[in-house]
C-alpha cells in the first residue's frame, strides 16, 4: 500500500506531503489546479522520464519520495528476486532526486538504476494514465493484455515457444545464408583457405603479443633506462670513493675496532652489517639488469617486425590475439562445411524441419492455453461490465492464425463486443465510444489487479467520457474494488467523489507572489462542500449540499448488497439528486419529471416530489425496460 508521497520543487508543487489511506482515495479540484501534476510526479517517482522543464526552480533540488508498506509474503519474494528487501517494518522507500539535470535513484537508501526502479514500481503500483484506454483501439495491444492477465499459466509455455522460435530462426537464417551454387562455393572456399593460411603462417602463440609489447617498450627506451640505472649503480656501488658501498665499508671498519667495548655497539655493528649485505645484493641485481639491456640492432628489428605482423592480423581478424585465434577456428569449421557442402546442407535442412516441428507444437500448446485463459478473462470482464451499466453485454476474444509464426506465437487475436441486444459482436477497436472504452478499461484493470496481486491502483481520470447512470456505475465499481485494493483516483464526477474513504482537494494558491499547487485532505464537512461544488458549480447552494449528503449515504448500502446488483436504484437516485442543483438544467433519468415541473412551480416542491416518488419511478422503469431522458429547468 502507498502510505505517503513527498514532492518538492516539481512543476507548480513547492512542497507537498500526502498521506494516503487504504480504501478509496479521491482527488478532486478545478480544471487547471494541478491534478495532472500530482500524477506526473508519481510517474517520475516510479521511474518515468523527467521533462527538462519539470523543475519549479532549476537551481534547486527536485525531490519525489514514495513510501510503501508491504505485508504480502509473495510480493516480498518477488522484490527479493530483484535485489530489494523491505525494512523490518515492511517499508519500501523509493526516492528520486534531480540535481543539475541528473537524477539519483534509491530504494531504501540503496542506489539503483532507473530500469530497476521501474521493475520494482511495477510490482507495487498499477497506474492508469490519462487516455490509456486508447490502447484498446490498437489491435496488437489486445494480445498483450491477454498475456499479462494469464502470465502465470502461460509463463512456461511462452518460454518454451521463445526458445523454439530462436532456435528455428537461427537455423533458418543459416540455411538461407548458406544457399549457393558450385562456383560460389569454390570462391568462398578459396577465400577461407587464404585467410586461414595467413593466420596459420604466423604461428601465433597465445599471450605473445603482450610479451613482445613489453620487450619493445624496453628496447625503445633502453638508452634512457641504462643511463638512469648506471647512475644508481654508481651511487650505491663501490666504483666511486664516496659511493654508498664504500662509505658503509668504512663505517663498518670503525665500528669493528670498538664493538668489544660496549654490548650496544655490538648490536649496531650487526645491523650495519645486514645493511651492507642487502646493499651488496641490490647492486648485484642492478648489475644483472644492466647486462640484460645489452642487445644488438638486429634483435630490436626482429621484435619490431614480429609485433607488426601480429598487429596486422589483429587489425584484420580480431581486436585481440585470442579473437584472431577464435576466428581461425571458425574458418576451419566453415571450410569443413564447404568441403562437404552437400552433406552439410542436407543435415541443416533436417535440423530446420525438426526445429519447425517443435516450434509448431510449442505454438499450438501456447495458443490452446491462451484460448482457455481468454474465456476466463472475458467471463470476468463481462461480469465487471454488468456492474458498470452494460446490460446483456457480450464480450469475447476472437482468435485468427498468423500465416507464419511470429515472436509471440501464431495467434492474431482481438476483443469483440456487442453492447446492444440483437447486434452481432464486432471488434472492440471499431465500435467502442470514449465512455465505453473507459468503462471497459476499468473492468479489465479490476480483473488484472486481482490476478497480479497488485495492492495499489491509481486512476488518472478513468471517468473520461462518462456521465449520468454510467458514472454512478463506475463510482460503485471503484468502491467495490477499493475493498480489496488501495485505489487512488482523480475525478471530476461527484458520484465518484461521494464514494471516497479519503478525499483530497487540489487547488492553486498564490503565495509570496507565486502560484503554487497545494493538496489537502478534507474532513467530512469539507468533503461535503467540495462535492457540492462539483454538483453545483462555483456557488455552493444549500440544495447542492443536501444532495451530496443524501447521495453519499448510498455507498455503504451499495457495497454491502453489491451481489444483489442495486446499481440501477443508486444510479437513478443520484441522477434525481442532480435534478435540483444550482438552478441549472440537468438531464435526469426518471418518469415524467416534465409533468412534475408543470404541476409544481417551486423548485423545492419539485425536488421533494421526485424523492417521494423515487421507488415508484424505479419500479416503473424496470418494468418497462426503457429510459426516458428529460431536461428540466428549476
What topology emerges from the helices and strands here?
Blueprint: E1 2-10, E2 13-19, E3 24-28, H1 35-45, E4 62-69, H2 73-81, E5 91-99, E6 102-107, E7 110-111, H3 114-124, E8 125-128, H4 139-149, H5 151-178, H6 182-201, H7 208-220, H8 222-236, H9 244-258, H10 263-292, H11 297-317, H12 321-339, H13 341-386, E9 394-406, E10 409-418, E11 426-427, H14 428-431, H15 434-452, E12 456-460, H16 468-481, E13 486-490, H17 494-497, E14 502-511, E15 514-522, H18 524-536, H19 542-552, H20 554-560, H21 567-577, E16 586-589, H22 593-599, H23 603-612, H24 614-624, E17 629-632
Parallel strand pairs: 3-13, 3-14, 8-12, 12-13
Antiparallel strand pairs: 1-2, 1-4, 4-5, 5-6, 6-7, 9-10, 10-11, 14-15, 16-17
Helix pairs in contact: 5-13, 6-12, 7-11, 8-10, 9-10, 11-12, 12-13, 13-15, 15-16, 16-21, 18-19, 19-21, 22-23
Structure description:
With 634 residues, the chain is an alpha+beta fold. The protein has 24 helices and 17 strands. The strands form 4 sheets. It has a 6-stranded antiparallel sheet, with helices on one face. Strands 8-12-13-3-14-15 form a 6-stranded mixed sheet. Strand 5 (91-99) and strand 6 form a beta hairpin. It is flat and about 115 Å long.
